Amino acid sequence: MIQEPFAIGASPLHQTDPRLKIILATAYSFLVAVLQGFPALLTALVLSIALVAVARLDSRALFRRLGLANGLILFLWVLLPFTFPGKPLASIGPFALSLEGVRFCAQITLKSNAIILALIALVATSPIATLGYALHRLHVPAKMVLLLLLTYRYLFVLEQEYERLARAMRMRGFRPQTSLHTYRTYAYLVGMLFVRASARAERVHQAMLCRGFTGRFRTLKTFTLARRDWIWPFAAGCAMSGLIMLEWTTGWH
Amino acid sequence: MALIRLDDISFAYPGRATVLDRADLTLREGERIGLMGPNGAGKTTLFHLIMGLLKPDSGRIEIFGREVREEKDFESVRRQIGFLFQDADDQLFHPTVLEDVAFGPLNLGKSREEAQLIAMKTLEKLGLERFEERITHRLSGGEKRLVALATVLAMEPKVLLLDEPTAGLDERTKERLTQLLKGFDLTYIIISHELDFLMETTTAVYAMADGRIQWDEEVKLHRHIHGHRHGAYPHAHE
């Protein structure tokens, strides 16, 4: 159900302390999200691509992921240029294309791709479990970390339960059609999954209680910053101040 | 000394018929009890009552010589009694095996280093070396069961409660579990439908019926059905 195509690797980014990667990815995403000028945005995109290159990721999985995100952005291109108020650029039939709309769309496209690429290079290069422990060490509330880790763990169990039910339905000759019977069957299937998930949650909680759980989340995992890790905050500092400078000198404010 | 003593325990799930009806049970140090009984006879319920996951409607539960009533009392019970659940997926909730086995010891207040050491040792004891970094949800059914047992044993319990530990295991894993249990110096109760397994691993087998726990000592002569090719023809066995 959850595939982590980028989590395993031997690149420098895979070996960097995940806490550091989370912090840098967050700071970088916020910065790129507020950039306006095209020189700065294009530079950010180039920086993100460079990060992905450093992470040496499987390009096919990478493009599949980018395709998914850009599919959504495509919708914006269909709608926004025609609805955004501003100077008309061209007109197709009764619809006028506004310069501001096109510019806005281009900004969104550049921003989202730059952020997605950076997140893939920085965050997706750690397994989800490791990210959970890293968030815990970064003092993210234990409840949220547990929620993340338990969701990750039990999604697979739920998927198996879904597969079992769906298989049993097929074995008894169920074929989805456009009929009330089909809708009702699917509703029962979903309902059953909810019932099972909640019973499962109850049992997991009981098992946790039996092993002395009292609400505090404790883990073995510790992270240490290696000396070579220090290059990242330094590089990120330079890159981000560069972006700010660029925005300052070339952006319209 | 009686480690666990249940006196006159009655229990019914809300809106359903009585499961336990004035049941008694005493588990003494060193005893190994097998518990059989039909589905719905209240075997698992009994374990849940001992662990404080359910509260009895009436009766008295004494564990390690002290009466337990409140959630607070059971918190200390849970530190000393290990409960192996029927479904190992309920028990293994961490992404990796080592983290999961260390969870109990960490809850007992051990330091990270101690907990890790205990976890490694426990895995080694069960023949699960090199399982530390394995992803729990990708283990096979048998491996999950053994790792779940490791998570319980890592707390160094005085008593073990095992709920159908052989369910769904193949013969080899079952044999491995049997040998492990026989090798432990532990007091335990095992719920199982497999008499052969109980005869190997326990010293007494009780039956649950009509909400009671009964001790059936009478030896009964019985026949076994056995099958083989050409079995339809008259023949003799030595």
Describe this entry's structure for a reader:
The complex is a heterodimer of chains A (253) and B (238). Chain A has 2 domains: 12-126 and 226-250, no CATH class; 134-210, no CATH class. Chain A contains 9 helices and 2 strands, in the order H-H-H-H-E-E-H-H-H-H-H. Chain A has helices spanning 12-15, 18-34, 38-55, 59-83, 99-122, 128-137, 142-171, 180-210, 231-250; strands at residues 88-92, 95-98. Chain A has a two-stranded antiparallel ribbon with strand order 1-2. In chain A, helix 2 (18-34) runs antiparallel to helix 5 and helix 7 (142-171) packs across helix 8 (180-210). Chain B is of the alpha/beta class and 238 residues long. Chain B has a single domain (2-215), classed as Rossmann fold. Helices cover 34% and strands 25% of the residues of chain B. Chain B contains 8 helices and 10 strands. In chain B, helix 7 (171-183) links the parallel strand 7 and strand 8. Chains A and B meet through helix 6, helix 7 and helix 8 of A and helix 2, helix 3, helix 4 and helix 5 of B.
Short description:
The complex is a heterodimer of chains A (253) and B (238). Chain A has 253 residues and is mainly alpha-helical. Chain A is 71% helix and 4% strand.
Topology:
The complex is a heterodimer of chains A (253) and B (238).
Chain A: H1 12-15, H2 18-34, H3 38-55, H4 59-83, E1 88-92, E2 95-98, H5 99-122, H6 128-137, H7 142-171, H8 180-210, H9 231-250
Antiparallel strand pairs in A: 1-2
Helix pairs in contact in A: 2-5, 2-9, 3-5, 3-9, 4-5, 6-7, 7-8
Chain B: E1 2-12, E2 18-28, E3 32-36, H1 43-51, E4 58-63, E5 66-67, H2 71-80, E6 81-84, H3 88-91, H4 97-107, H5 112-125, H6 141-153, E7 159-163, H7 171-183, E8 187-191, H8 195-201, E9 204-209, E10 212-215
Parallel strand pairs in B: 3-8, 3-9, 6-7, 7-8
Antiparallel strand pairs in B: 1-2, 1-4, 4-5, 9-10
Helix pairs in contact in B: 4-5, 4-6
